[in-house]
From TrEMBL:
Binding sites annotated in the UniProt record for a divalent metal cation 1: A178, E198, E239
Protein name (record): NAD-capped RNA hydrolase NudC
Species annotation: Thiopseudomonas acetoxidans
Binding positions for substrate per the UniProt entry: R88, Y144, Q212, N213, W214, P215, F216, P217, H218, S219, A261
TM region(s), chain numbering: none
Binding site for a divalent metal cation 2: E194
């Protein structure tokens, strides 16, 4: 069953009297630990957080019911039955439809929070009722939700793959190389530059594989496979603390399932070793 039968991102009208809602603050969502709910009655949620709502955005439909995002101004919770939960939790649980909804909500909430004031004149910005846009009425500046284009690449050398770890990773975990595109470069140029900057390696035979929207906080990941061409690994210590060639039969702890990094690795293993073809959740 397609996740669109559970969630679709068409914008419901903001002036509807009821519906469903999620409450968001800095990539966390209000979660009822007694019922395990993260989607609530809109009326109930607006009552609970009445004086704490920075912005409200219509984000789509869940089982054909309109859903709204309430962006909160701080992390204080009104009751011990509530806590904060992240999109990563539901990604690890394999709840694809909910991940799509919450990932979208988190990106919209981050954008709404970070664009409350005009970057040109400093006045308060308003949300458009017609479409997803915030605007400054005095000077005409408009802001739309942003996506940061990133490359992510699995580099192989025979039966070895290049994996690296950043200081923020959990102990023992290694992943594929990734980085943000810069103004004026193509995403392919970004792949070559980032691999060279982070490991001093040259690559070739670059092949686009797939993409994934990554709501941490607002990236669009373009996934590639490349083959090693030349060079010796010299980690860029400002970015990564270690990079190694790993034999495909002896791999370290890998990124979480559902991520494009894990998919690129598992797809390569499938192509080299057979078995079950991996699926990237969409």
């Amino acid at each position: 069953m397609s996740h669109y039968q559970h969630w679709r991102s068409a914008m419901p009208p903001l002036d509807l009297p009821d519906g469903l809602a999620v409450a968001h603050y800095k990539q966390g969502f209000v979660h009822d630990r007694t019922t395990q709910a993260v989607i609530f009655s809109r009326t109930e949620l607006k009552h609970i957080f009445a004086d704490r709502i920075l912005d409200e955005q219509a984000i789509g439909y869940w089982h054909d019911k309109p859903v709204y995002l309430l962006e909160l101004d701080n992390e204080e919770l009104p009751d011990s039955k509530f806590d904060w939960i992240t999109v990563r939790h539901f990604m690890l649980q394999g709840e694809t439809a909910l991940v799509k909804l919450l990932g979208f909500a988190s990106q919209v909430g981050t954008w709404a929070r970070e664009h409350r004031y005009c970057g040109s004149c400093g006045r308060s910005m308003q949300s458009s009722l017609a479409h997803r846009m915030r605007y400054c009425k005095p000077c005409g500046v408009q802001s739309y939700p942003r996506l940061a284009p990133c490359m992510i690449v699995l580099v192989s050398r025979g039966d070895e793959i290049l994996l690296a770890r950043a200081p923020r990773f959990v102990p023992g975990m290694y992943s594929t190389l990734a980085g943000f595109a810069e103004p004026g470069e193509t995403i392919e140029e970004c792949v070559h530059r980032e691999v060279m900057e982070e490991t001093s390696l040259k690559i070739h035979q670059l092949k686009y594989i797939t993409s994934q929207n990554w709501p941490f906080p607002h990236s669009m990941m373009f996934g590639f496979h490349a083959e090693y061409l030349s060079g010796e690994i010299v980690p860029e210590l400002d970015e990564i603390e270690d990079a190694q060639w790993f034999n495909i039969h002896q791999l370290p702890q890998l990124p979480m399932s559902g991520s494009i990094a894990r998919y690129l690795i598992e797809l390569h293993l499938y192509q080299r070793l057979g078995g079950s073809e991996p699926v990237l959740p969409n």
